[in-house]
Amino acid sequence: MEEPFASVVICTYNRGEMLKECLDSLLYQTYPKDRYEIIVVNDGSTDGTEEILVEYQKKASCKFRWFAQENKGLSVARNTGIKNSEGEIICFTDDDCIADKDWIIELVNGYKDNGLGSVGGKIRAYDAYTLIERYINERKLLNQERFFTPLVGANTSYTRDIIVKTGFFDESFMSCEDVDFAIRVKIQGFESKYNPKAIVYHKHRATLKGLMKQQYNYGRGYARLHKKYTKDFLPRYNLVLIPLKIIHRIFAYPVRIVSLPFVDDKRYYLAEPLLDIMIFISHFLGIVKETFFAEPYRGEKYSDKLDFLGEQSVKRILRMAKSKIF
Question: How far apart are CA 60 and CA 191, in angstroms?
Answer without folding.
Answer: 34
